[in-house]
Records
---
Amino acid sequence: MFQYQCLNPISKVGLDGFTNDYIKTEEIEKADAILVRSASMHEMKLPENIQAIARAGAGVNNIPLKDCAEQGIVVFNTPGANANGVKEMVIAGMLLASRDIVGGVEWVKQEKDNENVGKLAEKQKKQFAGCEIKGKKLGVIGLGAIGAMVANTAIYLGMEVYGYDPYISVDTAWKLSREIKHIANVEDIFKECDYITLHVPLLDSTKGMISKDSIAMMKDGVVLLNFSRDLLVDETALVEALEAGKVKKYVTDFANPTVAGAKNTLVTPHLGASTAESEDNCACMAVKELRAYLEN
Ligand code: NAD
């Protein structure tokens, strides 16, 4: 019989991250499996009885994979289950980087008590003017579940899309629009594109892929989007490039102090997959995987 216990009473579906208090509870020692969202398990002593860990999400860098392998613990993630939620955030990020909707909304709020706000707006609106994404070149680095969806949607929005992924699966390749131009060298994405979006996992080989050198190759005024992982980007080099105007906007889902208050950044607190639909999809897939594994 498959039973589960929610270790976080605040969570509706029992999938919220473990806090240290909960990690220390005795209940977890009795569990056969753990289901975790994005909270880090690196500081946690893995209970001896655990047979499997399901990560309700895509990135598994919060799981101590080496320790799991040594203890014979099987690790699952939920590929693609939150891809649409992240894709919509990326498209929104691209639009917000191009149109100063945030600045315009803030300005109207500031003038809320001014009875002439309408007239004043006509004079002030120039400062919030933007550009359209149609016709611009978008580079998508990593064409997995999320990257493929972003690339396909951008094609529909009239962008010229360049994709780079040396390990693309046949399954993903079939889902991609034929209008996407496949690029063999990531350097060509850096050199050619007006917008660059990262959709690779955090690995030794991808860590710091956006560096001082790669930024130097990019077009002046490039917009960079990072909804994958913060450590893909050398944020110190990036902030310098933002200050210098080399990078026009940095849109990221990772709120580090280096970028949080930096010029021309739009930072969200890891909201990419925070939709009711993505959370349900991930929860259902993770439970299904654990059930299948434990009951067989
Ligand atoms: P995925 O595994 O489906 O796709 C990743 C792709 O990256 C694969 O196709 C792989 O071949 C490719 N890749 C690996 N190394 C590469 C390299 N050096 N250059 C180019 N491509 C490379 O994963 P996904 O579901 O698309 O998620 C991608 C990442 O997005 C996750 O690893 C996670 O870090 C992040 N993510 C963020 C959020 C969020 O809330 N912001 C939510 C989900 C996922």
---
Amino acid sequence: MSTKLIIQADVTEGKINKNIYGHFAEHLGRGIYEGIWVGEDSSIPNTKGIRNDVLEALKKLNIPVLRWPGGCFADEYHWKDGVGPREERKRMVNTHWGGVVENNHFGTHEFFTLCELLGAEPYICGNVGSGTVQEMSEWVEYMTFDGESPMTAWRQENGRQEPWKLTYFGVGNENWGCGGNMRPEYYADLYRRYQTYVRNYGDNKLYKIAGGANIDDYKWTEVLMQEAAPMMDGLSLHYYTIPGDFWLGKGSATDFSEDEWHLTLKRALHIEELIEKHGTIMDKYDPEKRVGLIIDEWGTWFDVEPGTNPGFLYQQNTIRDALVAGASLNIFNNHSERVQMANIAQTVNVLQAMILTEGQEMIKTPTYHVFDLYQVHQDAERLSSHLESDEIKHGELAYPTVSTSVSRGKDGKIHVSFCNLDHTNEVTVDTELRGATLGTVSGKILTSDKRDARNTFDAPSDVEVVPFANFAEQDGGLQVTLPAMSVTVLTIEEG
Ligand code: AHR
């Protein structure tokens, strides 16, 4: 079989929510502290305590939404410890992540400043596991209420006159695990209760996200939808790509075998089955697809880099990660009728990061470049398309060689993202364009000839986006030849 893509350019299938390109930043390792927050007195150039190099790099990605403060940290976080004069803020132990001291210098005000500087919408995750209803309710009041109240007065005393605009609010995180080890029935009741007091103040309308399932825990989704669907706007799902065993060894981020290469990609593609199966359950209770599936943690999870704190989840990032990112984002785009948001874990220095830092230095990872390339899909119209792909076979494993998604941007141009997951062979994709006339075509690509290719502090530009022109017109469509291990975006202007 050869690989063939049919694009029906005059049939749209709804909008690709830009929030699919969302991010997640937790108080974990060097994710917030060092990676984003260095403090106003730091020798690292910063804006209001946030390092400028990271800010500039992230701004270029047009991050639509940023989830914070966790993760597991969220269900141990007490927001009141993180407001007021910084030197007076309570110091606590970050028990989940390395047992280090959390000085609470990055709190609510600093997070909103970060979002403002990035132009990203905030997505706050509240504490159900160890927090009270009152605490959650008062946090929302502190952030969004404009009238006379103790929380408004306190916010103003702390330097912020106007309330902030907050849309996305998560009611707990992984409440089946680190967020309280609850059964779905119990969490569903708690969700109903907590969300009652998460109020809409003035014209600030919250989009409430219930803590969802881990991987293939379909019972969790069933119970949550049955018991609480009318009270939620979104239900989350967490899925990490791990080529090994979570407890016995996940595998190295850079030193991996061919078997691990294949297992990684095969497991990354598994998210499509999860979306479809959780989505089918959601359809039963919500056939109009009002409730969004919010994949608010996804990405690769490998063993930490040798010599680093095991609780800090610091890992390098290669072209393999780029392919996981590209193929996952294609899947989210192709299921945009249900997937309303996704947040890759995590932005800086943690898991599948966009950026790695070391002291003053900063590098962009291959995953960063995929998010950069794929920006064209944000809020674009998904176009009808059909892919028939060759398969990669490795032992018992089989999976498609090529992954694609197609959209029409606000600029009217057609954007096609392709991943060639084969690490040894190029692949030719016969691309048929129906319902449009081919005009100018241009392309960009991220690729390498080494399957562990990465950027390092010594060689920060080994994996970079370059122009791509390996395509030719064919019967009104295109013959596109994708190098091995590549993520490509073609832009087609109609003629
Ligand atoms: O992203 C790291 C951790 O993974 C998060 O804190 C938790 O929600 C998940 O288990």
